[in-house]
Amino acid sequence: MEDEKELTIENQEFGPNKQKFRDNFAAAYPDIDMNDEEAYFGALNDRNDQYDKDKSRLDELEDAQVKFGEALDADPRMAELFLEMTKPGGKPLEYLIENYAQAFSDLVNDPDNDEYRKALADKIAQDSADALSLQQAEEESEKNIGPTLDALAKIAEEEQLTDEQVSNAFKTAIALSEGMEKGQISEDMWRTLIKGVAYDAAVEQARTEGEAAGRNQRIREKLRSERPSPMNIQGGGGNSLGNGVQRPQRSLGRSVWDDE
């Protein structure tokens, strides 16, 4: 009697439609084991959710397309304007002048309506001011970028930074500048700044302590060099050590030199 072959999903025979679905699923989700029902149905649920999102977006696009088509049908000149805007080398402004010059002229020169003339004048003035401000900002940036990069190169040389560290520092500065303009500084940016301030404070403290330690050491060395030794004590008794040097007074059994 032949051993009964265990029936698994792999050795089952399916109809053509079911087999086609399984083949398509396996191609789309090669990492999903169809024996694992949770993984299998989880993938199906994710695909259904994505389908719903795609369908909703497609419905929105179709609705917008219908409205756009209706607008073009209402005025055939708008369809031609759209084609002029989208074709390579199109000239939409020239098309507007050619087809709407009289309409614009009548609107702006209407003696009974100053609103459009004022709106047009205000817009032109604002555009001119914006263009001037942009030009000034670009000129200021061009003037300052040289010294800025020179300063970065100087610090990089002093700190012996790698090219990658220099690049990261520049990117951090740019991110900080953009964040300040938007009034938005992330926790990581604050952390970087605070660590930098704390480092500078630690360096300053170490420098101050080093100067104090060096000064104290010089004083000790000076006192030690002036301390008389038995070799230069010339006779005499009492508190005299010779050459006019007085013996230090002891207090509670200690000499001032005992602290050295």
Summarize the structure.
This protein is mostly helical. 71% of the residues lie in helices and 0% in strands.
Please outline the helices and strands.
Blueprint: H1 16-28, H2 37-74, H3 76-86, H4 92-108, H5 115-159, H6 163-182, H7 187-226
Helix pairs in contact: 2-3, 3-4
Can you offer a commentary on this structure?
With 260 residues, this protein is mainly alpha-helical. The protein contains seven helices and no strands. Helix 2 crosses helix 3 (76-86) and helix 3 packs across helix 4 (92-108). The chain is flat, with a radius of gyration of 43 Å.
Radius of gyration: 43 Å
Ends apart, CA distance between termini: 104 Å
State the major sheet.
Answer: none
What is the number of beta strands? Answer: 0
Sheet/helix structural class: mainly alpha
Number of helices: 7
Shape: flat
The percent range for strand residues is under 5%
Low-confidence segments, ≥5 residues, pLDDT <50? 1-5, 229-245, 247-260
Q: What are the defining features of this structure?
A:
disordered N terminus, flat, single chain
